[in-house]
Amino acid sequence: MNVARSFNNWRKYRQTVSELGRMSSRELQDLGINRADIRSIARASIVR
Asked: pTM of the predicted model, to two decimals?
């Protein structure tokens, strides 16, 4: 994996964690997401 791709993947991961982290517990619950699962969901988002 090249440096640019690694950097973009890191940015996408951080953005996903940040956006989900700003949501209320109620909003996350409506999406079926547990707050403890945010990082694993963010990791999965960069694999796609």
From this structure: 0.84
